[in-house]
Design a protein that fits this description.
Strand 1 and strand 2 form a beta hairpin. About 65% of the residues lie in helices and about 10% in strands. By secondary structure, it is mainly alpha-helical. It contains ten helices and three strands. Helix 3 crosses helix 4 and helix 9 packs antiparallel against helix 10. The protein has a three-stranded antiparallel β-sheet with strand order 1-2-3. The longest helix has 26 residues.
């Protein structure tokens, strides 16, 4: 198979034409590394190897760009790359990013747990859902939550009390407000029984008896 034309594309790659027909576009670095020029002849296997090398090069650049903007899990990065690349290339690229330390699901899980608990006030149930949604393996999620629980307050009602005092104390004044408060705290991932106990205690302590 003979290269009959090489044409620069608008995206900075080069289109390879073989025997007069477009075959695929190639990364400029790969084009240079193989010294490809019009008139060169390749086997089908050689051209496929060049295509995969070019796609891997482009996928790595795309991954580096994505990771420079925000941390990602392996699954999240894979899904982003899959919009442009074959599964084999996506998997290879994710593995490479993991090898050079730009992706670490364990570190991501610990960091994200801390952020959700401290900055958003989420309870364990909500944190578990958020971690799973980001593609983290369930075993890793449970290990991370267990470790966090050991470091955190033993009683989640302490955190519930803190959240109410910071943002929702005015919800305690009547039954309608308390119902709304329960919904808010359940969405944050706290157990209904813990929420009810805290509200009942705070209402009693504040001597709030309104309906």
């Amino acid at each position: 198979m003979k290269i009959t034309e090489i044409e620069r594309t608008k995206k900075g790659r080069y289109s390879l034409f073989v025997d007069g027909e477009f075959l695929f576009s190639i990364h400029i670095d790969v084009l240079g590394a193989h010294h490809i020029k019009v008139g060169d002849e390749f086997t089908v296997q050689q051209l496929e190897e060049i295509r995969l090398e070019s796609e891997f090069k482009s996928a790595k650049e795309r991954a580096l760009s994505l990771l420079s903007r925000s941390a990602m899990t392996k699954k999240r990065l894979y899904d982003k790359l899959a919009q442009y690349n074959d599964p084999e290339i996506c998997q290879k690229t994710v593995q490479r990013m993991e090898e050079i330390g730009l992706i670490n699901d364990k570190e991501y899980a610990v960091r994200f747990c801390k952020e959700l608990a401290e900055n958003k006030g989420y309870g364990m149930a909500r944190i578990r859902r958020e971690l799973i949604l980001r593609g983290l393996e369930k075993e890793l999620v449970e290990e991370t939550l267990e470790a966090m629980a050991q470091k955190a307050e033993a009683d989640p009602r302490t955190k519930i009390t803190e959240i109410i005092n910071q943002k929702y104390k005015n919800y305690l004044v009547d039954l309608k407000g308390r119902a709304r408060l329960i919904s808010v705290l359940v969405r944050l991932g706290y157990r209904y029984d813990d929420i009810r106990d805290v509200i009942n205690r705070m209402v009693k302590d504040e001597e709030i008896y309104g309906d």
